[in-house]
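User: My instructor asked us to take a sequence, write out its structure as tokens, and then describe one feature of it. I'm not sure where to start. Here is the sequence I was given:
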Amino acid sequence: MNALELIKQQHEEVSKLFKKYEKLADHADDQRQELFEQIADRLGAHAKIEELYLYPAIKKDDTEDELREAVEEHLAVKRLIADLLDMEPSDEEFDAKMKVLQEQVEHHVEEEEKDLFKAARKILSKDQLEDLGIQLEEEYDSLMEGEPRNDVPEETERAAPI
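Assistant: Let's start with the prediction itself. The structure tokens for your sequence are:
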């Protein structure tokens, strides 16, 4: 699968999980915790593969500022996940933090799909995007065998280098 198609598919999967979360009743703490963990795992693994493979592959003088912003957005998302990992769904701030997480992810996705995808299509050939897609998918699947959300707090201590 093409790298950009894979990234878009992952974006859509997380969006659907956020929509499920929004529909849960306040007293459904177990379900809210489970959905948060699914979202956090997917975001943790997703950010890692982008930072390790996609962003370096499209780093050029004219993309560097956009990539720095993308990494900072990842860092903000990771900080929210780290906060949520230390909370219970019954905590008063849990839903508010989940809403902010959703908004930040939606903002990041919008910019990434509009700007960085366009840059990636200019920089990488179709074959390179296919090869990168294979690499991203393999790494993502490998990360998802564990609980990537648990790596997030340590990752918030430093932004990924670009």
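For the description part of your assignment, you could build on this observation: The radius of gyration is 16 Å. Try explaining in your own words what that tells you about the chain.
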